[in-house]
Amino acid sequence: MGILFSGSELVNIAIGIERNGAAFYDGLVNLTKDATARGAYKYLADKERGHIAIFQNMLGSVGEYQPPETYTEEYALYLKALADSAVFSDDQVAREMAQKVGSDAEAIQVALGAEKDSILFYSEMRDLVRSSDREVVNKIIEEERSHLRQLSDLKRKIATG
Fold first, then answer.
1. What CATH architecture is 7-160?
2. What predicted TM-score, i.e. pTM, was given to this entire model?
3. pLDDT for residue 58 is more than 90
């Protein structure tokens, strides 16, 4: 028997991803001297906290839902690898990474990687939750994509001074 994730396990992983992202952005807020970057980091941290609330609300509806067994052990291992390879493995690591970045440009690069990881995980997760929860996951994926665009814009602004 392969490794199977219940719906609640997937949602709890998503909650962890969002919590770690919020911790990273919160850590950056006080470190940057650039007002535009500070505003963006604060906004992104708040959005991540909003996603936490959305996923916590989903927990009640996913219960002990088991995704279809049509996916293989290899796919389950793939999902586990996605979760394990997240840029921020926990909120303490996220805060430490925020303190270690040497510039806003470096912070943005790390954040871009984290947002891409989130999109990839949620895209895979979307097919493993109840159909009634898929639209919520789609909405979060779209918000994560908007975070990518914001970060790319911020990267451009910082690069041009």
1. Up-down Bundle (1.20)
2. 0.81
3. no
The CA-based angle 107-110-116, given to 5 degrees, is 140
Which amino acid, one-letter code, is at 149? R
- Tell me the CA distances in angstroms from 26 to 36, 47, 92, 100, 117, one per residue in order: 15, 11, 12, 14, 19
Averaged pLDDT for residues 96-107: 92
How many Å is the Cα radius of gyration of the chain? 16
Query: Average of pLDDT values for 74-84?
Result: 71
Determine how many CB atoms are found less than 10 A away from the CB of residue 36.
13
pLDDT given for residue 70 in this prediction: 58
Q: Looking at residue 108, what is its pLDDT?
A: 94
What is the rounded average pLDDT of the residues 55-60?
A: 83
